[in-house]
Amino acid sequence: MLSRVVLSAAATAAPSLKNAAFLGPGVLQATRTFHTGQPHLVPVPPLPEYGGKVRYGLIPEEFFQFLYPKTGPYVLGTGLILYALSKEIYVISAETFTALSVLGVMVYGIKKYGPFVADFADKLNEQKLAQLEEAKQASIQHIQNAIDTEKSQQALVQKRHYLFDVQRNNIAMALEVTYRERLYRVYKEVKNRLDYHISVQNMMRRKEQEHMINWVEKHVVQSISTQQEKETIAKCIADLKLLAKKAQAQPVM
Amino acid sequence: MNENLFASFIAPTILGLPAAVLIILFPPLLIPTSKYLINNRLITTQQWLIKLTSKQMMAMHNTKGRTWSLMLVSLIIFIATTNLLGLLPHSFTPTTQLSMNLAMAIPLWAGAVIMGFRSKIKNALAHFLPQGTPTPLIPMLVIIETISLLIQPMALAVRLTANITAGHLLMHLIGSATLAMSTINPPSTLIIFTILILLTILEIAVALIQAYVFTLLVSLYLHDNT
């Protein structure tokens, strides 16, 4: 109603808007206000789970309870039916048999398949509830898992100093090993150099010795004149003869 | 006897006012709506049934055809409930009146055909000639196809009317036969059994709804989306 007032006001204010009549319903819907009632301050009572109890599928139980102080309901019912039949208020016609067969088939069908259909409907509802329950449980489980993970992470953090100690030890050992390696290498290098010098010295001395020996030999050989050589050879021969005589004499004894 | 036989098909009036409107408006009262997820058994079974039928029916349509799903599902629900309620004693079935069935059939069929002609003229016209006809037969075949197209709404309406009316009439007749036999020859309870069997077959009037909507559906599909 307010929106119609707005529309007419707009039409008088801006005549060009009169041609926008086709926007009318949209404007009506767009300006409709929702949630105008007071919200419930107390929880709304839940719907009843089961319907009212009924006898013979038609007559509510309260009717029987209402009649019991006054008259028997079955007697009343029988009386009414017989009255209607006898006074021909209800005429037995072809329709009566049709009605009998329809109602008979209906009652038979309901009695036979009623519980099955009821269970089926209950199962459908239970499936829906189970789905929602599943979602809720999954959410709770997820959050619980997150909590457990957080707790275990916190516990791990408490034990972290072990890790740091081990790492520190590792690093110290590695440093030590590197230091010793380098020390050894230095030692080896220095020894190498000193060995080199020593071997150079040895070699020089040996070379000098050999050279001296060669020089001495050469001069000695040079200094041996031919005369001396002959004399020495003759002496050696005489010595040898003497020795041979001595030697030969020995085994005879 | 004659008057009584067809008495149940007279449109009921209450003091001269048509009660047929009330009768036609009654079935939706039996199909409650609910804004809750978990409902009572009635609503649950009804919702499950409607979901089943709608999925089954609209599965073969494309997006454009599925815009008709509300119309078709409400159509099948209406015809089903109306037919079933007409089985109760002393009740009036609106679908026995040819006027109502024509009012249902003609607009739906016309809507489908016109939609088909508007969007795909060539496809719609191509339906008038089946594939692989020998050339001399073409003129005659076009005429025959046109007639078969134009007769579709009539066929839909008359089919439904005739089936329901025939069923009700038969039940009436056999009921009156039983009534007569009960005074002449009581042990003829066999005829009552015949009524029962006939009745259960008549409850396959619900299958007529299937036939109705299905035919409508098929024609809609063929005309519109191919």
Mean pLDDT of chain B, to the nearest integer, reads 80
Q: How would you classify the helix and strand content of chain A by structural class?
A: mainly alpha
Q: Taking strands numbered 1, 2, ... along the chain, how are they ordered across the largest sheet of chain A? A: 1-2
Secondary-structure element string of chain A: HHEEHHHHH
Distance between the termini of chain B: 52 Å
Helix amount of chain B: 55-70%
- The tally of helices of chain B reads 11
| Weakly predicted, low-confidence segments of chain A | none
Poorly predicted runs of chain B: none
User: How many independent structural domains of chain B?
Assistant: 1
**Tally of helical segments of chain A:** 7
Quickly give the structural class of chain B.
Answer: mainly alpha
Task: Assign a percent range to the helix content of chain A.
Answer: over 70%
GO molecular function (chain B): proton transmembrane transporter activity
Main location (chain B): mitochondrion
Membrane topology (chain B): Multi-pass membrane protein
Protein name (chain B): ATP synthase subunit a
Which SSEs are present, and which pair or pack?
The complex is a heterodimer of chains A (253) and B (226).
Chain A: H1 2-13, H2 24-30, E1 54-55, E2 59-60, H3 61-67, H4 73-86, H5 94-158, H6 160-223, H7 226-252
Antiparallel strand pairs in A: 1-2
Chain B: H1 2-5, E1 13-14, E2 17-18, H2 20-25, H3 41-58, H4 63-66, H5 69-85, H6 98-119, H7 121-126, H8 138-150, H9 152-184, H10 190-202, H11 205-224
Antiparallel strand pairs in B: 1-2
If you had to describe this structure to a student in words, what would you say it looks like?
With 253 residues, chain A is mainly α. Chain A has helices spanning 2-13, 24-30, 61-67, 73-86, 94-158, 160-223, 226-252, and strands at residues 54-55, 59-60. In chain A, strands 1-2 form a two-stranded antiparallel sheet. The model of chain A has no long low-confidence stretch (mean pLDDT 84). With 226 residues, chain B is mostly helical. Chain B has one domain (7-225). Chain B has 11 helices and 2 strands. In chain B, strands 1-2 form a two-stranded antiparallel sheet. In chain B, a hairpin with a 2-residue loop joins β1 and β2 (17-18). In chain B, α6 (98-119) packs parallel to α11. Classes of the chains: A mainly alpha (253), B mainly alpha (226). At the A-B interface, α5 of A face α3, α9 and α10 of B.
